């Protein structure tokens, strides 16, 4: 794939030609919109990219001059995020998901058709500049793959036939809206603010997703309570973070409330980047009022007046929808000043979009990103609850956690604790995808076994289940009696099902390793390199060159990642480690037995360059 | 984490020490003549925990000593066999990740990476060499940036700014494509004194001054006279030293 951040001027040629002086006025207006505030660099870059389709060096220089920060400090952010580009990426930029599920659902054929119809390879732009083809990590559509983003608009369930139609329409000069021929999705997806073909696929509703939610009920209740009592109720409910890490929410709120300082922030983490997860997308689509009410409740409880909803770039198609919900909340006085008539209860929300980086789901990386920087996780301590956004005490909660809180306030902590298990109270939204009849979102009580789940979703002939996405665990049938809970199989909600047709090592483990390699921020020496070494080993094994020692070394080398700073590095070897643990026979089948080592050395390849240079034919005896 | 500076007790490698709360663990260790190797830390500059060399076990968890403030009752292990091997592995990672050819490097003998490799007795790295194709950026009139030798420790990024606080150095890209870029548009602000500081903070030969070299002859250089770490391990006992 061509580099979107070229090193040489030659590669920049297209950019230089397309660049025009009028762009400067546009970018100046964008910078002004954000009050010349360098901490809003993400928004400035997102708007610039959206305006021009790319951000060429003269524009970077202009932003640098206007904000009086170094060009390299703009480039460090610009080059970090997947969806920014320094050169044109086509009038229509197509990002085709390359997740394991997309591959299982026929991505390869779709990709080849795209290349043929567009007339360019992936990583490139067609000669007429009309279409650019790129790959991207999971875009949160695992229940309707293969899927792609075209100029931010989502196209799901792609087939070679559909692709031909879409490219034909784009070549004919049709607008993207007109290229949608298969109708709109269910629920709010069909509303004018979204108008998307995305499907919600809500398959099982529980108390969070239940019908009959009335916005504002929880707010009207808490304004009669002391903030401390709100926190006490949350603590009593025993709810833990639903993003995957499982930190007790009430405790987080309490520490933040007690942290010194007047200015505090509530972040909602809607970065949802773990491949196979999409339940937050459904909440953002169908239950955004509940989410924002949850943020306001958190604001009241900890004494924060500002909330930031951090949404992954892949969900920008929901922007208008979310903004209109915020505006509606203000009109109803559920946001704004003196909320629900309570003197001094002020809280408002702004949306911060990401620009393509899985690591930004880590709470301190998310905060860095919202400050306009690279999404590099911070060193802790200090934790965000003490020093977070702009060094102020900050709460970062998952979308589902905040929605659950609204229900806890409405129905009480004892009601919530009556569901789930002793240690894991309440319910969990699952994003289920892969080989099953009914992929989609299911709300279950904690304590469900994997077997129950498989029966529920219509999965048969199951070889393995990836619980918790690539950073989680790959388990086989002998563990399907395990239960989903914080004390057994802890999960942020992603379950990917593989039936017996799938090649777990080649299709799954390799895909996950590539994912972690692409998404590492690179700051830690360990996370930047070890997954690359593991990939080399796995390649060797898949090429039938591996020996026993390679498997042992993979396990040994994986341990080095335990010295990494954040969850990404700490879990990046999980696909390798859990597949070796639970599917050892697959590795054993691929390696050479009775051999101590195979250096992978190939004489023909080793001497090829010199032979080519002197015109010799290598003589292999 | 409170940095109130109250006197606390901590245990390092089984021995009890007094310290002030909030001081970074690596500094407490140094004061007490315990050498914890590091490549990215510089005293007095906000730490970053980039190289992971100073990883220690704090109450059974791996933490970087350069970013962890000490607090009451902490139990720290700095040099178990596992930690020793971990650090050795990290050093090996750095050697195979870049192109470190010590015999042709001006920094040889003054290089922290090389000195630590000697201390850890590295012979052949366990990982495969990647021999990456990297460039040398010689556009600046005073400095040469050799990406082959860069270990991405962020020292230059964190310390070298111009008079308006603007960065001369920054990260670019991410993951295994990560590199450091130089702000060529600020070259008029990068004077000789700043250039010298940049060279001095670089733990390897990735930043070198133009038009001079080998001012100190080979065999008389810093780590050729005293091995790395010995300057700490031979320090006099500190005032709040071991009990």
CATH architecture of the largest domain in chain A: 3-Layer(aba) Sandwich
CATH class of the largest domain in chain B: Alpha Beta
End-to-end Cα distance of chain B, whole Å, is 25 Å
As residue ranges, the low-confidence spans of chain A are: 8-17
CATH superfamily of the largest domain in chain A: NADH-ubiquinone oxidoreductase 51kDa subunit
Determine the N-to-C terminus distance of chain A: 38 Å
Instruction: Tell me the count of domains of chain B.
Output: 2
One letter per element, helices H and strands E, the order of chain B comes to EEHEEEHHEEHEEHEHH
Percentage beta strand of chain A:
5-15%
Poorly predicted tracts of residues of chain B: 238-243
Note down, in words, how this protein is organized.
- With 621 residues, chain A is an alpha/beta fold.
- Chain A contains 26 helices and 15 strands.
- Chain A is globular, with a radius of gyration of 25 Å.
- Chain B has 243 residues and is α+β, with helices and mostly antiparallel strands.
- Chain B has two domains: 7-79, Ubiquitin-like (UB roll) (Roll), CATH 3.10.20; 87-212, Alpha-Beta Plaits (2-Layer Sandwich).
- In chain B, strands 2-1-5-3-4 form a five-stranded mixed beta sheet, with helices on both faces.
- In chain B, a hairpin with a 2-residue loop joins strand 1 (7-12) and strand 2 (15-20).
- Chain B is globular.
- Chains A and B meet through helix 5, helix 20, helix 21 and helix 22 of A and helix 2 and strand 8 of B.
């Amino acid at each position: 794939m061509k580099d979107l951040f070229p090193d040489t001027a030659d590669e920049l040629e297209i950019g230089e030609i397309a660049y025009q002086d009028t762009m400067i006025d546009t970018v100046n207006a964008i910078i002004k919109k954000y009050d010349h505030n360098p901490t809003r660099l993400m928004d400035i870059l997102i708007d610039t990219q959206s305006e021009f389709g790319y951000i060429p060096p003269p524009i970077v220089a202009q932003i640098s001059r206007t904000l009086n920060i170094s060009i390299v400090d703009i480039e460090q952010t610009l080059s970090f995020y997947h969806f920014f580009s320094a050169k044109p990426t086509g009038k229509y930029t197509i990002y085709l998901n390359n997740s394991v599920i997309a591959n299982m659902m026929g991505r390869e054929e779709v990709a080849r058709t795209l290349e043929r119809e567009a007339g360019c390879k992936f990583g490139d732009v067609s000669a007429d500049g009309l279409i650019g083809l790129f790959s991207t990590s999971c875009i949160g559509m695992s229940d309707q793959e293969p899927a792609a983003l075209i100029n931010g608009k989502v196209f799901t369930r792609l087939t070679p036939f559909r692709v031909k139609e879409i490219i034909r329409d784009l070549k004919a000069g049709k607008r993207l809206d007109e290229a949608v021929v298969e109708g709109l999705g269910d629920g709010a997806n069909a509303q004018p603010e979204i108008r998307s073909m995305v499907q919600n696929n809500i398959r099982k509703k529980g108390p969070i997703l239940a019908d009959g939610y009335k916005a504002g009920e929880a707010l009207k209740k808490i304004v009669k309570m002391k903030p401390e009592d709100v926190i006490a109720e949350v603590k009593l409910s025993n709810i833990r973070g639903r993003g995957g890490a499982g930190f007790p929410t009430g405790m987080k709120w309490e520490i933040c409330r007690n942290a010194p300082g007047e200015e505090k922030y509530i972040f909602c983490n809607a970065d949802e980047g773990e491949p196979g997860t999409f339940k937050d997308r459904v909440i953002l689509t169908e239950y955004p009022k509940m989410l924002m009410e949850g943020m306001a409740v958190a604001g009241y409880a900890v004494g924060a007046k500002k909330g930031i909803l951090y949404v992954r770039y892949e969900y920008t198609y929901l922007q208008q929808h979310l903004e209109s919900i915020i505006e509606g909340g203000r009109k109803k006085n559920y946001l704004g000043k003196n909320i629900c008539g309570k003197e001094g209860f002020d809280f408002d929300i702004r949306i911060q979009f990401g620009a393509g980086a899985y690591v930004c789901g880590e709470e301190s990386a998310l905060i860095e990103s919202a400050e306009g920087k690279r999404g590099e996780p911070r060193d802790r301590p200090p934790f965000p609850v003490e020093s977070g956004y702009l060094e102020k005490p900050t709460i970062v909660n998952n979308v589902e956690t905040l929605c659950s809180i609204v229900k806890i306030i409405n129905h009480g902590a004892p009601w919530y604790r009556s569901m789930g298990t002793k240690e894991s109270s309440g319910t969990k939204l699952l994003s289920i995808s892969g080989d099953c009849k009914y992929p989609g979102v299911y709300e279950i009580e904690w304590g469900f076994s994997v077997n129950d789940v498989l029966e529920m979703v219509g999965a048969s002939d199951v070889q393995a289940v990836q619980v918790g996405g690539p950073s989680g665990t790959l388990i086989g049938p002998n563990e399907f009696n395990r239960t989903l809970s914080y004390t057994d199989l802890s999960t942020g909600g992603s379950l990917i099902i593989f039936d017996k047709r799938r090649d777990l090592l080649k299709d799954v483990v390799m895909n996950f390793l590539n994912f972690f390699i692409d998404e590492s921020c690179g700051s830690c020496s360990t996370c930047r390199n070890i997954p690359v070494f593991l990939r080399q080993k796995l390649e060797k094994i898949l090429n039938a060159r591996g020996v026993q020692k390679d498997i042992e070394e993979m396990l040994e080398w994986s341990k080095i990642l335990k010295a990494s700073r954040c969850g990404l590095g700490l879990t990046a070897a999980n696909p390798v480690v859990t597949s070796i643990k639970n599917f050892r026979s697959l590795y054993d089948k691929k390696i050479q037995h009775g051999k101590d080592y195979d250096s992978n050395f190939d004489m023909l390849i080793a001497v090829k360059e010199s032979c080519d240079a002197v015109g010799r034919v290598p003589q292999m005896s | 984490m409170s940095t109130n500076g109250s006197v606390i007790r901590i245990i390092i490698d089984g021995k009890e020490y007094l310290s002030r709360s909030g001081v970074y663990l690596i500094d407490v260790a140094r004061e007490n003549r315990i050498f914890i190797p590091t490549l990215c830390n510089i005293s007095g500059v906000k730490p970053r925990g980039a190289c992971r060399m100073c990883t220690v076990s704090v109450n059974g968890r791996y933490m970087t000593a350069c970013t962890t403030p000490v607090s009451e009752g902490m139990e720290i292990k700095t040099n178990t066999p596992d930690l020793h091997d971990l650090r050795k592995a990290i050093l090996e990672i750095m050697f195979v990740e870049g192109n470190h050819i010590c015999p042709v490097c001006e920094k040889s003998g003054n290089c922290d990476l090389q000195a630590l490799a000697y201390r850890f007795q590295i012979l052949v790295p366990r990982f495969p060499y990647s021999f990456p194709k990297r460039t040398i950026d010689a556009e600046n009139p005073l400095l040469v940036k050799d990406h082959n030798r860069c270990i991405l420790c962020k020292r230059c990024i964190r310390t070298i700014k111009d008079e308006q606080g603007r960065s001369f150095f920054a990260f670019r890209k991410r993951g295994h494509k990560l590199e450091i870029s130089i702000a060529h548009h600020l070259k008029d602000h990068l004077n000789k004194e700043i250039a010298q500081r940049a060279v001095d903070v670089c733990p390897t030969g990735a930043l070198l001054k133009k038009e001079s070299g080998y001012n100190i002859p080979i065999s008389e250089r810093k780590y050729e006279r005293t091995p790395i770490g010995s300057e700490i391990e031979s320090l006099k006992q500190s005032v709040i030293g071991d009990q």
